């Protein structure tokens, strides 16, 4: 019998240790709210372009996802899996596209063709987490199933640029980069990468150019690379001449789409696949012109390689360009925050017939992380806090909070058992714009005491002593009970 592996983080005493798995972040209100608003804005773009909503659920059969190990007892390579009660393996979806392919195959006869859908929700990947890379994260996708041709790809790219702006990226802060697998195939043929394994290794190496740089990718194209943690990734084994050819193609990008097409024409040669790839990008360029997409928003970039195996033609990647500085003073650049491409073979896994399809996904979690680091996600105002000055009978505080909520103002009555000062500290930590106090004196006079916490904090900066602070009581005033709602509403609206 094998011994159970000891968890190094396991508690040494009888107490349970508070710890969480890596890659599954906790999120508080400001980030949750920002992500929700981002999804609303991006899906509004998708709807405006004529796409309809679809939710396929969290679990799929492991074989339906196409992500499993046939020689392994547990199909958990890249996904989180469990066995259903009928002993079939089911997995948490690792993206929103593979479930769409299954849905389209099941319902193809009754769907409008092409079928244009959008979806938003969490996905899960059983992979090594890192900065801005999680095992559980939110995506927001749009896909067109049943439309062939570069015009459908151009529409997806143009819509992706509009979605990035809707998500909060401004001029010069993002770029949607476009390439095609046909040009990649021409280059792979040119360096003698004939096996699927060799080709996939090269594509995955190129996909890391933005993160690892030229030297790191050359190692992955050659003998292999050891990362900072000591993990070694086996390389493609190309010789120096072949590595130079691949890198020359990957670095053929220029400032405009037209200039890049000219440079690519010189880099990929005159083979049939190379010509088809150049024609494909030229057709996308014409579509982007029709959609009014400037070169600053959408670039042709031969270094773009989507890591998933099912892309068959054009591939797209959205990159956040702005650099930010974290709280430790480190320069942080998130990089890729979305991507997609054409996947004409995915539905065919179920039907046996090729169904053209193209799509794009915005990485909501990665975008929100980038905006949080840069300070673009501000802390939200908390509720108005009604202090409880009568711990024996909190009825008055409960009544006031109820009145405020009935007037549409977010409010709560303090539910703890602490005194005045801890209650004020609680209101500060909640981010409350206002604290409301009603004691015996206020009840007798028919008033409430209102403290504008934001204004009070500003005024307090100019006060030099505790005595002066107690005398001035910055931001604090009395108001007739009948005026309470109007006075508090003014403060809350001004703070938003």
Automatic annotation (TrEMBL):
GO terms for biological process: histidyl-tRNA aminoacylation. It catalyses: tRNA(His) + L-histidine + ATP = L-histidyl-tRNA(His) + AMP + diphosphate + H(+). Residues 1-25 are annotated as: Disordered. GO terms for molecular function: ATP binding; histidine-tRNA ligase activity. L-histidine binds at residues 95-97, 125, 139, 143, 306, 310-311. PROSITE patterns: AA_TRNA_LIGASE_II (PS50862). The keyword Protein biosynthesis applies. One of its GO terms (cellular component) is cytoplasm. Pfam families: HGTP_anticodon, tRNA-synt_His. Its EC number is 6.1.1.21. Keywords: Aminoacyl-tRNA synthetase, ATP-binding, Cytoplasm, Ligase, Nucleotide-binding, Protein biosynthesis. It comes from the Bacteria. It is an enzyme of class 6 (ligase). InterPro entries: aa-tRNA-synth_II, aa-tRNA-synth_II/BPL/LPL, Anticodon-bd, Anticodon-bd_dom_sf, His-tRNA-ligase, HisRS-like_core, HisRS/HisZ, HisRS_anticodon. Residues 48-394 form the Aminoacyl-transfer RNA synthetases class-II family profile domain. Transmembrane segments: none annotated. It is found in: Cytoplasm. Belongs to the class-II aminoacyl-tRNA synthetase family. Homodimer. This is Histidine--tRNA ligase.
